[in-house]
Amino acid sequence: MEIRHAGCLCGAVRLTTRGNPVRIGLCHCMDCRKQYGAVFAALAMFPADAVTVTGKLADHQGRCFCPRCGSPVLTRNGPEIEVPLGAFDSPDQFAPSYELWTIRRESWLPDFGLRQHRRDRQD
What residue stretches are annotated with the CENP-V/GFA domain (predicted)? Predict the structure, then answer.
């Protein structure tokens, strides 16, 4: 089983994921844009029981971050936990297969060649 590690900028919060993500996507919704301070978020979704967290988290409506450095480290979304790809210790482990909320997508972004959903996923 694949074990991967992720965490915040200062190292106070650490994540361990077990197994492969359920899916990997890019999200252009306003919540993600505001949370990450970026024009989209790249996220890997795992079953909640496949993610272990050590360290103290601060939380705003399920969007969790390190209270010490402010790094966003996960979002609780029903039975899943979304982990930003940038939080993983090793780069280039995952490739997104779709984009969400493309009605909010910046027009200057290149075409990533991914399946696009105008709003949330329909499948």
Answer: 4-99
